């Protein structure tokens, strides 16, 4: 944390026992104890949401241990030492621990009995030295155990943040309020200067209801020299002022409004832009773009960005971090705009994608495609137009400008994305594969997908995928030639049981340039040769598309 205003928080009993019961590693530094306690309370301490939430067994045991530790600390007195000199003197201690003595206490044959199972469990689980106490009673000698309060640094919490009793300390407040625990965990991840400015401006009190948004999207909030560092730098300050409704020069007003606006979605937008490079930020924060892009991303969704277990902005994060740009500042478009108009009009279960697709026919500029991608960034899918756009941009970005994917190939890859996207990484790894090789691959995969018997289909796909993996290993200096062999003979040979013999028949290596080596045309696979190989190897009666 590093806050200059950190205060010491008292934890009852040995720190080792408290960490054990709170599920915190014994190796953490003292500064990490309270933040990790807060995180465990809101992540592990409650089941259900809102008013229907109830404590879990973890939190119940931890709360009972804290109470037991306080009773032991009171018994230890001002010297912070528990002293037991006789069987009679052990009764107050044993009552707290959940045990009792037998009538033969003081003899070697005596042992302790469980009186309160719940307290006894806490005694054992927290690591109290019960065997040493029992042995002392057997031998009739005194038992001494140091039991002092542990103190750890932590940002101070103000009592009036909670509606509970005024006599609660920080530990009780965190254990009893999951929202406050989450808020505390979010504050602990801020740097000292930012936290100090917020405290001095009395802004923290206003932000407790935004604990979830602050936890998800607050890690990049930074105040430097009295000013909030915004994506795009000082040049974008006025745009953020207009969007948030407060100036970055007033952190105490800007930050609370940022997290309160639109249920935390503006904070998510701010956080995602803060993670990318300054050059990428500059594209998104150009005059007129910042508000327009946010409005497209925000849409008409009235839900809260802080709900759920995981962040809800993953689509936006991937888009802003991986979007490619043309030299003129326009977003990069794999294939062309016409292809993506058709992609957005494909059948889908998501209403937001259908709504955007209805307007796609009027696109005439790459910026409109980017706005559409922003509009569907919240759609909870892994196979939508946004995901296919990012994948195809990555594949195309690894290829030379002269060998970009054709519009037809982009349309084919996008159309088959929901079925075969897991296999597309091979096209990114080997950018020399041309359009015909990619088309042949998808043709084979589609044919295998058409096998009616599920067992045979699964075996065929498994064998084909394994063969592609072996090809990736064995590709060597001429991946295109071996890929053609795999697609041409391997895909159809699955039906005949000759896959490995056909796809991986090795020949002696000859230096490049000899007749047996097989030159690549223009530094890439021969498109026509790939097409001919695939068609020649097809079973009798199979339809082979014409070469484009």
The average pLDDT score comes to 84
Helix content: 40-55%
Regions with pLDDT < 50 over 5+ consecutive residues?
Answer: 490-527, 529-534, 536-542
Number of strands: 10
How many helices?
29
Distance between the termini: 62 Å
Give the spatial strand order of the biggest sheet.
1-8
Structural class: mainly alpha
User: What overall geometry do the principal axes of the alpha carbons give?
Assistant: elongated
Question: How is the biggest beta sheet arranged?
Answer: 2 strands, antiparallel
Strand content: 5-15%
Rounded radius of gyration (Å): 33 Å
Describe the structure.
This protein is mostly helical and 548 residues long. Among the domains are: 7-153, no CATH class; 435-548, no CATH class. Helices cover 53% and strands 5% of the residues. The protein has 29 helices and ten strands. The protein has helices at residues 15-22, 30-44, 57-76, 87-97, 117-125, 130-139, 170-176, 178-188, 192-200, 204-207, 211-217, 237-244, 251-260, 265-275, 278-284, 289-298, 314-322, 337-344, 351-358, 366-375, 385-397, 407-415, 417-420, 425-429, 435-449, 454-474, 479-493, 499-503, 527-536; strands at 7-11, 46-47, 54-55, 81-84, 99-100, 113-114, 143-146, 150-154, 223-224, 227-228. It has a two-stranded antiparallel ribbon with strand order 1-8. The chain has a two-stranded antiparallel ribbon with strand order 2-3. Strand 9 (223-224) and strand 10 (227-228) form a beta hairpin. The protein is elongated, with a radius of gyration of 33 Å.
């Amino acid at each position: 944390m590093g806050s200059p205003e950190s205060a010491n928080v008292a934890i009852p009993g040995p720190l080792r026992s408290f960490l054990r019961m709170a599920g915190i590693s014994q190796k953490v530094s003292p500064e990490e104890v309270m933040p990790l306690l807060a995180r465990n309370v809101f992540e592990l301490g409650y089941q259900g949401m809102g008013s229907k939430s109830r404590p879990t067994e973890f939190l119940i045991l931890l709360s009972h241990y804290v109470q037991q530790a306080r009773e032991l600390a009171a018994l230890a007195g001002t010297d912070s030492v528990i002293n037991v000199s006789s069987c009679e003197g052990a009764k107050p201690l044993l009552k707290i621990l959940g045990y009792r003595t037998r009538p033969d206490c003081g003899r070697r044959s005596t042992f302790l009995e469980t009186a309160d199972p719940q307290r006894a469990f806490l005694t054992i689980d927290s690591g109290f030295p019960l065997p040493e106490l029992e042995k002392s009673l057997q031998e009739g000698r005194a038992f001494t155990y140091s039991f002092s309060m542990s103190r750890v640094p932590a940002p101070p919490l103000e009592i009036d943040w909670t509606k509970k009793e005024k006599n609660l300390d920080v530990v009780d407040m965190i254990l009893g309020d999951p929202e406050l625990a989450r808020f505390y965990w979010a504050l602990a991840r801020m740097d000292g200067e930012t936290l100090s400015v917020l405290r001095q401006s009395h802004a923290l009190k206003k932000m407790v209801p935004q604990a979830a948004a602050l936890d998800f999207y607050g890690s990049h909030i930074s105040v430097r020299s009295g000013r909030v560092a915004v994506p795009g730098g000082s040049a974008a300050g006025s745009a953020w002022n207009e969007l948030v409704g407060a100036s970055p020069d007033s952190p105490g007003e800007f930050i609370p409004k940022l997290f309160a606006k639109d249920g935390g979605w503006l904070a998510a937008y701010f956080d995602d832009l803060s993670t990318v490079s300054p050059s990428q930020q500059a594209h998104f924060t150009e005059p007129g773009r910042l508000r327009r892009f946010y409005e497209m991303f925000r849409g008409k969704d009235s839900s809260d960005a802080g709900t759920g277990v995981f962040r809800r902005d993953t689509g936006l994060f991937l888009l802003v971090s991986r979007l490619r740009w043309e030299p003129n500042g326009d977003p990069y478009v794999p294939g062309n705009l016409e292809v993506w108009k058709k992609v957005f009009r494909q059948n889908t279960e998501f209403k937001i994608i259908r709504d955007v697709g209805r307007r796609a026919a009027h696109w005439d500029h790459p910026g409109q495609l980017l706005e559409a991608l922003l509009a569907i960034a919240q759609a909870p899918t892994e196979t939508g137009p946004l995901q296919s756009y990012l994948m195809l941009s990555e594949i195309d970005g690894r290829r030379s400008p002269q060998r970009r994917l054709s519009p037809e190939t982009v349309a084919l890859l996008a159309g088959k994305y929901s079925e075969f996207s897991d296999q597309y990484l091979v096209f990114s790894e080997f950018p020399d594969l041309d359009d015909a090789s990619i088309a042949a691959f998808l043709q084979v995969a589609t044919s295998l997908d058409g096998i009616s018997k599920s067992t045979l289909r699964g075996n065929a796909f498994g064998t084909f995928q394994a063969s592609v993996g072996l090809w990736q290993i064995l590709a060597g200096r001429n991946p295109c030639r071996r890929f053609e062999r795999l697609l041409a003979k391997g895909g159809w040979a699955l039906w005949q049981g000759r896959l490995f013999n056909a796809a991986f028949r090795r020949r002696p290596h000859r230096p490049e340039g000899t007749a047996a080596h097989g030159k690549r045309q223009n530094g890439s696979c021969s498109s026509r040769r790939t097409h001919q190989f695939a068609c020649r190897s097809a079973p009798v009666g199979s339809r082979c598309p014409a070469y484009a």
